[in-house]
Amino acid sequence: MNVRLDDLDRKILREMQQDAGQSLDEIARRTGSSKTPVWNRIRKLREAGIMGAPTVRLDAEALGFDACFFVLIRTSEHEAEWQQKFLAALRARPEVQEAHRLAGDIDYILKVRVPNARAYDTFYQALISEVRIHNVTALLSMEELKFTTELPL
Fold first, then answer.
1. Fold designation for 7-47
2. Which helix (H) or strand (E) holds 111?
3. For burial by CB atoms within 10 Å, which of 3, 29, 80, 105 has the most?
4. DSSP string, the chain
5. How confident is the model at residue 3, as a pLDDT?
């Protein structure tokens, strides 16, 4: 669905990206509108698929997920059946926070959150037991310098 966004839509989206838990009254105040138009716009944006259900950002380290690995995958398999199996394996693993198919020398990159290196090895062993992978390189993030889910609206 193609939706044209106006200035109020963009203001609402900026507010929701920063804190989706704030009240409609607060969003209306911050956007210079009133509660009913804000609610109608939010409903329209959700129906259009621009905005999904509100979620909560959790602190991974506070919950014991201290290790973040970026996993670079090269494969010699590019058939649809292999890709479906690979995708199913990724979707079945909650440790995989993100997965991207890439252009270039690396076929896929995964962002994997686990408690420690041993937990990563368990994840890795399970993945390669299910799906044939040519080459895997795991890079441990030493420090997260920036994280955001916000788009520059």
1. Arc Repressor Mutant, subunit A (1.10.10)
2. strand 108-114
3. 29
4. ------HHHHHHHHHHHH-TTS-HHHHHHHHTS-HHHHHHHHHHHHHTTSS--------TTTTT--EEEEEEEE-S--SHHHHHHHHHHHHT-TTEEEEEE-SSS--EEEEEEESSHHHHHHHHHHHHHHS--SEEEEEE-S-----------
5. 80
Would you state the structure tokens that stand for residue 66, as one six-digit string?
A: 């201290």
Multiple choice CATH, 67-140, 3.40.50.720, 3.20.20.140, 3.30.70.1150, 3.30.70.920:
3.30.70.920
Q: Per-residue pLDDT tens for 62-114?
A: 999 999 999 999 999 989 999 999 999 999 999 999 999 999 999 999 999 99
In the chain, % helix, strand, coil (3-state, to 5) comes to 40, 20, 45
How far apart, in Å, are the Cα atoms of 40 and each of 20, 24, 37, 56?
15, 11, 5, 23
Q: HSE of 78 in the Cβ direction (CA atoms, 13 Å)?
A: 7
